Amino acid sequence: MKWFVDEEGSEEALRIRRRYVEGEAEIVAPGLIVFEALNALRYKGLFTAQEVKRISESLDAYALDLRTLSGQYAASTLDAAYENDLTLYDASYVSLAILEGAQMYTADRKLIGKLHEPYRSCVKDILEYA
Amino acid sequence: MTCMTVITVRVDEETKAKMDSVDVNWSEVIRSAIKRRIEEEKRRNLAKAVLINEELRRPTRGEERAEEIIRRFRDERR
Fold first, then answer.
1. Among A105, A74, A18, A117, which Cα is nearest to B50's?
2. ipTM
3. Chain A: which residues have CB within 8 Å of chain B?
4. Phi and psi at residue B67, in whole multiples of 5°?
5. What element of type H or E holds A50?
6. Which residues lie closer than 8 Å to B69 by C-beta, 6 or more apart?
7. What does the domain layout of chain A look like in residue ranges?
8. Residues in chain B closer than 8 A to A104 (CB atoms)
9. B10 interface with A at CB cutoff 8 Å
């Protein structure tokens, strides 16, 4: 979302985008991210329905590596949800970072505040992205 | 009947031991991963993605930030 609206964290989010576009970084995310991104942009009230459709086209063309919640990923997500008292929506991002050995960046400090180890080490505030 | 071609994938010994310890059809796993990656590559058009992105990117008007909207919807679905 921060790729489409200039707000706190956008500068860092655009640095992630640049590295992805230049092939220096990969982006892996739950399939849920598309629903949440488009829904948040809808409720921001900054875009028309037609513009949100264009944003959907753009997200599709980015071809991010999106994962379906199944198998080991589903089991790990449930573990993360119960161990950290998270919704499954939150846990699906955190557990994917663990499974992929990746670093997760988020602007949601409430989520970061709820995490215990080993989950906490995998998640950083987006403002820390250099 | 589809004619199948054989490809070779090398993995380290530790991974091979882990693969042997679970009951998984690894050929099917690799076939699925390859097909998924092909679909991603076909969809990938980064120039188009960035072009639309830059055309539509705009400043906030002080409305709820993205993470606040997402948090609200996630918590409402608890």
1. A18
2. 0.89
3. 1-9, 17, 21, 36-37, 39-41, 43-47, 51, 54-55, 57-63, 65, 87, 89-90, 106-108, 110-111
4. -65, -25
5. helix A49-62
6. A39, A40, A43, A44
7. 10-128
8. none
9. no
Q: By the 8 A CB rule, do A81 and A91 touch?
A: yes
User: For the whole model, what pTM was predicted?
Assistant: 0.80
Question: Nearest residue on chain A to B76, judged by CA atoms?
Answer: A87
Q: Return the number of CB contacts < 8 Å for A and B.
A: 104
Q: Quote the DSSP letter at residue A66.
A: E
CA distance A125 to chain B (A): 12
Residue A29, phi then psi, degrees to nearest 5:
-155, 160
**B48: part of which helix (H) or strand (E)?**
helix B46-56
- CATH number, span A10-128: 3.40.50.1010
Q: What is the pLDDT of residues B9-47, one digit of tens each?
A: 999 999 999 999 999 999 999 999 998 888 777 777 999
The single-letter code of the amino acid at B40 is E
Half-sphere exposure of A100 (CA within 13 A, CB side): 20
Distance from CA of B65 to the nearest CA of A (A): 7
